[in-house]
Amino acid sequence: MPLTIYNFLTRHQEEFKPLVEGRVHIYVCGPTVYDHAHIGHARNYISFDVIVRYLRYLGYRVRYVQNITDVGHILDTGEDRILKGAARERLEPMEVVERYQRSYFEDMDALGVQRPDISPRASAHIPEQIEMIKTLIAKGHAYEVNGSVYFDVSSFSKYGKLSGRRVEELEEGARVAVREEKRHPEDFALWKKAPEEHILKWPSPWSWGYPGWHIECSAMATKYLGETFDIHGGGVDNIFPHNECEIAQSEAATGKPFAKYWVLGGSLTLNGVKMSKSLGNVLTIKDALRRWRPEAIRFFTYSAHYRSPIDFSEQALEAATRGWERAIGPALAVREHLRSSALPEGGADDVAPALADIKHRFIEAMNDDFNIPVAVSVLFELSKLTNTLLAAEPPAGRRALEAVAALYSELAGQVLGILPERISANGANAEREAGLIRLLIELRAEARARKDFATSDRIRERLKALGVILEDGRDGTNWKFA
Prior knowledge:
Blueprint: E1 4-7, E2 12-15, E3 23-28, H1 39-57, E4 61-66, H2 81-89, H3 93-110, H4 126-138, E5 142-145, E6 148-151, E7 188-193, E8 209-211, H5 213-225, E9 229-235, H6 239-254, E10 259-265, E11 268-270, E12 273-274, H7 285-291, H8 294-301, E13 310-312, H9 314-338, H10 348-367, H11 372-391, H12 398-415, H13 430-449, H14 453-465, E14 468-473, E15 476-481
Parallel strand pairs: 3-4, 3-9, 9-10, 11-13
Antiparallel strand pairs: 1-2, 5-6, 6-7, 7-8, 11-12, 14-15
Helix pairs in contact: 2-3, 4-5, 4-6, 5-6, 8-9, 9-11, 9-12, 9-13, 10-11, 10-12, 11-12, 13-14
């Protein structure tokens, strides 16, 4: 089946047809860098990492743009997030930006999230934002009052087409305090005149000030991807007002559709409660990485479809760790076997049909709106097949195991990002451990063949004491961590 994507703009799952054959332009709303990234960010950016990985796996030439918000993101209190971070740490605003932008990319690198092709900063694109605002004023979609500029929502008849919210349904004071200078309560700021003491401000035709939050994404997306591009990604929490305002100002300025497909990820809660600093229940990615493997955190996010909500808990992460070990353990064992010079050659033809079927079903799952949970279930089928090959007598041939290893690298490595070329960090000895466990399983099988059940039982019990559970079946002996 062809790749289909659920498009939030139409509320339908549609066949994906890029604007230019063979190329995909994708924009994803990036972080506001005023503090360390948290696990909600991890869930969102891991999801889009897999989406971009898969598009490239299918052969598309992808340009992935993810912005860095370093000005203009206003809290409900009216404070700029960057200035709040600067006040908290008694630093210059751009010092805060540099610190937490580095922190964000460190976290993404640790999680195996591939970097975007372009990571533009809002403060570096003030001229582009000013030019777009000037265009909106000239076309009658925006107006200036006392040095600030607002988008006139009533001038854009399609406002609400993404969120489904009608202008007449909007309440005064929603999200930020209503300014009396606005013509309508629902109008939103494109440019704000800065108070004298405000640090982050730039010259413009209207005042020394700073851009609104929404205009940055429109200006940077169109600069690097064109007036109309393929995919706009982000979190479902930003549908209104951010994404809705992006569409309104972009399409009002250009007269063209902004993004063809809107792909939005579900929210994340922590132990069933929405994360909030006021509640003290924010878990940073750095704290999570101190407790769990990065691959396990990725694997946890795969337990739910990217559009569905997901709850982060200690129990869920422990289960994800065990799931990752079961899925990837056989791949590590294959690597150990391939280091042996005693393997017989051949065997590729014997496993080719089964591997082709697994690959077909994996692609079929991913083509169904990037259904990663189903794709992971197919990966477990590969693990089951691998355990059978490793337990076979006579042993599987080198060519067969090379074919298995290659498919693992494609599906678990290239697409899902949970099989690194080299296991590192707190899992530095994972491959060695897998090899030793497999060796003990082989010694136990030899003991059972000799009817030396005392030795066989001793190996099982010693492994169990070390947290390794053996499971005997018709396909041989599999193992997992307790």
